[in-house]
Automatic annotation (TrEMBL):
InterPro entries cross-referenced by the UniProt entry: Coronavir_polyprotein_1ab, DNA2/NAM7-like_C, DNA2/NAM7_AAA_11, P-loop_NTPase, SF1_C_Upf1
Membrane spanning stretches: none
UniProt domain DNA2/NAM7 helicase helicase: residue ranges: 755-814
Domain DNA2/NAM7 helicase-like C-terminal: 927-1026
Protein family per UniProt: Belongs to the DNA2/NAM7 helicase family.
Organism: Paraburkholderia caribensis MBA4
Entry GO MF terms: ATP binding; DNA helicase activity; hydrolase activity
Annotated Pfam families: AAA_11, AAA_12
Protein name: AAA domain/Part of AAA domain
UniProt KW keywords: ATP-binding, Helicase, Hydrolase, Nucleotide-binding
Amino acid sequence: MYNNSKILRYWRAVEIFCPQSIPKLQPEHRDRPTNHFATSDSVASWSEKHKIAKRKIGATHVWKHEVYAGVYELRTLRDFLQTRLGADPESFDSRLDGQSALFSLTVTHDGRPLFESTVLSTCAWAWGRTIAPGPGAPDWLDGFDKFREMFTRQMREMFALLEDDEEGHELRQDEIDVGRPISLADIAALTSWVIEALCLGLPEVAGQTRVLSRVVSEKFGHEADGADFLNSFFLDDLAKVAGEAESDNVGIALRTYLKPDKELDESSRQDVRERLGLPFYTLAPSKFPRGRWPAKGHYPLVYGQQFAINRMTAELGTASGLFGVNGPPGTGKTTMLRDLIASVVVRRAEVLESLAKPSDAFRTISKMKSAQKSHTIAVWAENLTGFEIVVASANNGAVGNVTQEIPGIDAVDPSWLANGFDYLTELASRTLGKPAWGMLAARLGNMGNRAEFIKNFWRDEKTRGDGSADSAQVRQTGFETWLRKQQDVSSDWDAAKDRFRRASTNEDTLRRQRQQWFEALREMPEQVERESALKREVDARKDAERRAMSAADHASDLFDNARTEYTVATSRKAQHFSTRPSILRTLVTLGRARRHWSTEHGLLAADVAFAKSKMHAAEQTRNLAEEVVKSASTLRSGVEGRLKTVTERLRIVREMLSDARRILGQCFPNIGTWQRDELAREKSSPWADPAWDKARVELFLAALALHKAFVVSQARTIRENLAGVIDILGGAVPPDAPRDAVLAAWRTLFFVVPVVSTTFASFDRLFSHLSREDIGWLLIDEAGQAVPQSAVGAIWRARRAVVVGDPLQLEPVLTIPFTTQQALRKRFDVAETWLPGRLSAQKLVDRASRVGTKLLDHERKPIWISAPLRVHRRCDRQMFDVSNKIAYNGSMVFDTISKTDLPLPPSAWIHVGGRDSAGNWIPLEGRVVLSILHDIAPFTKDKIYVISPFRDVVNGLEALLKRNSVGDVEVGTIHTVQGKESEVVVLVLGSDPRRPGARRWAAEKPNLLNVAVSRARRRLYIVGNSELWSSQKFFDECMSIINVQSGWVPPVELYLQ
């Protein structure tokens, strides 16, 4: 669709102005020293005279150098753009700091540039285009490729091989595209050319060069990596998907993500807190996924988690689309996603179980060539596709956390592993680098992670023993060798199928029973109402019958009276007839006697006729009344019959529900209290009793066992396919490799390892061969922290996308000023809806979600969020109360499990009134922090996080702690700890006492404080000037919950007991 393409091209233009920060200065780093050179006559890192040349690196290794030329401050770019396109309000976000460069290239150990490694900054080019021809020109942002060609020609001319450079020409003959040995002055000269060609007017950066050096194997010493760490990671994907969008080649998930405002129907939204019928039916046992994660402690999911899982599997299970979940801190997002993973694995196992023989899983053969070899790839049957799961995030830590937690031994209850369960457990532990319970997830993404995975998962590893003869070498078997060994092993495929079938039957039996109870519960109020209505109707029918009988009695009486009257009239007439005058009397009286008699007889005949008519009428009335009685009796009897049936059904329903309450216990849904007891409702786990929970877990474990049995039975095929995907991960498979072969290779990895993870930054390079909807399930974590354009390529490649995040935690930040975003928006003619500075991936998904609820934001305005997780189980009460009050308007539910006492002082705000500052760094606050850490470190087992809103405070803390050893402490900005947690967090506020702007920025929204507070499970110590911060919104509310102290009170005997 053209509109979607415009949005994507607009976002790409924004990304052009968003360069990556270059490596920080670390000259003493052991493995990757990074040096900065401010003058062109300095000794370069690749010079034999430089100090790193003296480091011992081994005879088979060499140095390789990433050069960043024309280093400039990102704030310089921001200042220019604001001068040219309009100023933004003052910002104190440390993520806007940093440095970037005009171009980068790789230099070999002997100082030769690898031409194919060169990267020109799109931002530098766009910066120049904003100077000339300027934003008003029709071709403002046209022509990057043309200028890059000019730059490449210029570089090749300046760094061309000399005629007498024999070594260089030999390298060229080996198809290694290198130049002559260069100096920093050469790089400065090329930088000056770029500055002049782009009219940048930055002569001061020409000699500013940053060099990151790393040790590589000699065989890779002249290899151009081809990685672009200077420009936005999303440019290529945005261009690709924008082109596909022009022909409407986008899936349902991405189309929903980019849905225009006019297509949004807010009236169709269903609020799960207001319309309780929706969760009631969504939580029906028949809607539960069949698989269940073997959760630690055997705890079931709670109401909101189960609703989200049931709804997303119902909507997306066999379809495509997008589903959002709102996951505030500590609400069990990963716990919920584990159940989704179990569900997907069980669904695939159901297909496996239906196969007549294992080889039926493959439908054909395809070929795929890599740099190493030609691969024969078995292509999967269509019904075994769509089960691939990718976890992605903008937050590298979040991705790592999820894929560490899923296979980690702490992710499951030990009781499930007691019977020798083994889903490649040893291999998983080796791959994870710590004890694991199964090969369930792998962290991929960048090339370093991929290489680590290949080494630990696929390759054999030889480790040195203790020097004795028996332990000279210990061989750790990689999966490739393991698969080779399985080719001669008889598979337990039939036994695994039988186990899965038994587990499936057992689970289905329990599911059906609970579904019957659900139907009974649903039916109960209907039957109670029917019974009540029928009782009323029976009473009414009896009353009607009584009235009919009374009327019939009255009619019978009237009939009897009428019949008596008729009898009397008939008798009188007969008697009168006997007195009829004789002929003689008639003659004697000249007919008068006869006339008189006839007159009287006529009157008597009329009386008889009248009485007869009256009797017939009364008889009809009586008969009709009797029919009415019969009818009333029949109706009464019929209603009584129906009442008896309903009463009997109600008795059965009540007995069923009585059994359900007895068997389910607390898991029986007490829907009568859902409306009035919101807290109990949210903490409940409807229908998920231990017996059914166990059956669902056993089905999942049986599904994994069936997967393993399949792998053993098809070991040769799996090994061939995995060899192909290993080459894909290593970058050895060309872009034009056969699509069916590449997909089959990837699907084989997903079959063995159900979940892989990556950051959005690495997504397009990791899955460069994949296209629209090739990935079955995309799980986006911490989506509130991701700019909307970062998720485009991932969602485009996904058939189903589950997006989890929270708009009330950290928001994404773009280095490009808002005014520049507006200028670009107008250029591309898109609505303000799509301004990335106001959006996150989560907000876009919330916007399109049909189920969710409303919250009030910090300005008391309603915001619509996706399916909410509301039960908090991480922090102790005080931290929860702060977070719930400042960010969630009291909508969260506290359910943190009570823990043993921590021998530390209670959480507190330690007032520090220091006035001396260096920027936002208050040295006196640092000394207080040092005292706190010295006092509490001996009593904490967990790492202590020391965090601040401001980068200069973090710099001051790092310098301070570098000089003072205080135990296991991690220092960083608040932005670095989203997705992390610890028992103890020290929040150091800082801020220049003379400049309130920094404090106003930190208190602009609740997000920053919300994240800081919710990292602390047990203790939160806030260090800062309470007098200055008390005037700031949210921080004043924090003070009303966290006790303010005039100074630090160290642990005393009371706390240590």
